[in-house]
Write a structure and sequence with these properties.
alpha/beta, five-stranded mixed β-sheet
């Protein structure tokens, strides 16, 4: 008996020694997209199950993370893996030396070519583009069918649709004015579309603002703010009290017929009403259908902090390469329920609105997410707050334009 006990103790000691020699690398993953937090955590768990030597701890800052991330950067403690917005934020962090060069990674080699500009600075790629997303009108097809309404293709069509809905006590647009980010998306979406009317490309507009020769008022501002004003009039009466959850609830229960959002909001609304029958169309700024396109581009990206040790950077890149594998791509779609930017991925499981996003972009093209190329403080402060305050009646159109111009000038002067 004593011999058996000694053998067991020796075996346990050996196992302890062996496990003690297995080095565990701990990584922190910051993310801001709050649509499906459990889905992202499930993806991370799947990766850690296959890679028991790695522990990835996710943490979220859902809105206005600039102060926190700036403080972390100043302390040389940026998270190893960072979900950051495309274009401007990637370039800003890369220019400051915060990001590792990912140009030669396996994940980048699997991306569609049109996604690469969103993560490029000085001819190098500093992040992996992930979800290709669109912002437009998500509409309830059953409500539209009940009142013999067709999905509006022009702004005049939209006005007629809203009039019929109001006559039948249906709120045209589910509101989200308690938080400022959706208003920021809306004003920049309409502004970007209106640039086309002036023959100005988004890149030309960005360059003119950065050079100090442009103004946010270089579009038809009467039309811009008329659309914002009318959009507010078509919302729920308690719009200022409604955040993202209230917006989705109003849409999911049929109180309202439409919501201007990205398809991440459709995913959450579907959880509230699994029978929701919805479609996805551009917000029609013009009375020419061909001019009305979805506001669609690469949304989020994953970058690797240059402040991390080489060992941790290597493990972080290994995780991003795994995301680009067939297993990683499939989990991104099934768990996080978003599209991705990899070649040949199947999105059919996501539902009709996602299919309509891809078909619309293929048929008509899209307007790029120009706000992603604005200086971050311009979008985070002047655009978001300005649009929200205008729609609440707290700021004039002229003041919104002046604030955006001043904030932009201050940003490029730094």
């Amino acid at each position: 008996m004593m011999k058996v006990l000694k053998t067991l103790i020796a075996a346990a000691f050996a196992a302890t020694m062996f496990s003690g020699c297995t080095k565990v690398t701990k990584l922190e993953l910051y993310y801001y997209k709050q649509e499906n937090q459990q889905g992202l955590k499930n993806i991370i768990k799947a990766y850690m199950k296959e890679n028991p030597n790695v522990v990835i701890t996710p943490f979220i800052i859902p809105n206005d993370a600039d102060a926190t991330m700036s403080a972390r950067a100043a302390q040389n403690k940026l998270p190893e893996i960072m979900q950051i917005q495309s274009y401007g934020r990637v370039r800003e962090y890369a220019e400051k030396g915060f990001l590792a060069d990912l140009s030669e990674t396996e994940a980048l080699s699997k991306c569609v070519a049109s996604a690469l500009p969103a993560v490029t600075w000085n001819d190098k790629q500093y992040a992996v583009p992930m979800d290709f997303a669109g912002i437009g009108i998500i509409y309830n097809k059953d409500i539209f069918a009940k009142y013999n309404l067709k999905a509006p293709e022009t702004y005049h069509d939209l006005q007629e649709v809203c009039a019929v809905l109001e006559e039948n006590d249906i709120v045209p647009f589910s509101a989200l004015l308690k938080e400022n980010w959706s208003a920021g998306h809306f004003i920049t979406m309409i502004h970007t579309a209106l640039l086309a009317e002036q023959g100005i490309t988004p890149d030309e507009f960005i360059a003119s603002m950065n050079d100090g020769n442009g103004s946010y008022g270089d579009v038809d501002t009467d039309k811009l703010f008329s659309i914002l004003r009318e959009y507010r009039q078509y919302m729920n009466s308690n719009a200022e009290e409604m955040g993202g959850g209230e917006q989705q609830q109003s849409f999911a229960n049929g109180e309202s017929a439409m919501m201007v959002q990205g398809l991440w909001a459709f995913v959450d609304a579907l959880k509230l009403n699994p029978d929701l029958n919805a479609g996805f169309i551009p917000f029609p700024v013009y009375d020419d259908p061909l001019m009305n396109k979805l506001y669609a581009d690469v949304d989020s990206t994953f970058a690797v902090s240059s402040q991390s040790t080489p060992e941790k950077q290597a493990e972080a890149i290994k995780f991003l390469n795994w995301l680009s594998s067939e297993e990683g791509q499939a989990l991104w779609v099934s768990e996080y329920k978003l599209t991705n930017s990899f070649v040949g991925c199947d999105f059919s499981s996501l539902g009709v609105p996602f299919d309509e996003l891809m078909k619309s972009v293929a048929a008509k093209g899209s307007y790029p997410w120009a706000f992603s190329q604005y200086p971050s403080q311009v979008f985070e402060s002047a655009c978001k707050n300005g649009a929200q305050q205008f729609m609440m009646g707290a700021k004039s159109a002229e003041a919104v334009i002046a604030d955006i111009d001043a904030e932009w000038a201050a940003a490029v002067a730094e």
